[in-house]
Amino acid sequence: MQYPDFDFYIHIDQKIDIGPFLFLKDIASVFFIQKRIECNWGGYSTLQAMVNSLQEAHESSRVYKFYNLLSAQDYPLRSNKWIHDFLLENAEKSFIYYEEDHTSKWWDSAVQRFDKYHLTDFNFPYKFFVERIINKVLPKRKFPLPVKLYGGSKASWWMINDECAEYLLNAFKKEKGLSNFLRFCWGTDEFVIPTILMNSPLSAKIVNGNLRYIFFPKGDASPKILQAADLDAVVKSDMLFARKFDAAIDSVILDEIDEFIDRA
């Protein structure tokens, strides 16, 4: 993915030894996020790591037109130049997947992500017992902002322009009570960012789609690990990226995607 106009900011989970990754610092376009977070699946810590990473990139001495969130299990489906030119042609847009809270089946179950207390980022004996007691005794929680909610199972991954990035970071600074509320929510990375941006003056410039091919088998909570048999669907998707991949399960599909990019 190295390209003259692309830089990479890498967040290494605080639980992980950063040592084996430090060789990447020798690449001029690679930077490590300094404010590392210990991330817990479903915890507010995951969203916090995303926001910290966005903030460090945005406040760097470099100027960026787009910020693209990727995980270690994402892979490009188009060449660097293709992606670069696409972004230049769509400089006024941002790309985020979302479903509206009043029309989506996803929200039928997702509402409990914030109307109940979750102790996901806490670690102490009997925490799940304490969590159940709290939710029995205390009333349901209400989202602290008077807004329509947006989110979805594919909403964690996005590509936003600088205008959206600045608005998002300012929103977290301005709404002091929001972070405190979110600390006791679950899966905030799937609804908080689209909710903030879709209730902003920038919403008309947001495209509902994150430019990723992600396949959720029916009834599964996690996306499928893509393998060679999925290649045709992946390359015909017209997306810029796909996820999830695991080279230990199937590395052949990554080689075949490289060949597809070279031919395109």
TrEMBL record:
GO terms for molecular function: metal ion binding; protein xylosyltransferase activity. InterPro entries: Glyco_trans_14, XYLT. It is a single-pass type II membrane protein. Keywords: Disulfide bond, Endoplasmic reticulum, Glycoprotein, Glycosyltransferase, Golgi apparatus, Membrane, Metal-binding, Signal-anchor, Transferase, Transmembrane, Transmembrane helix. One of its GO terms (biological process) is chondroitin sulfate proteoglycan biosynthetic process. One of its GO terms (cellular component) is membrane. Pfam families: Branch. It is found in: Endoplasmic reticulum membrane; Golgi apparatus membrane. This is Peptide O-xylosyltransferase. It comes from Pedobacter nyackensis.
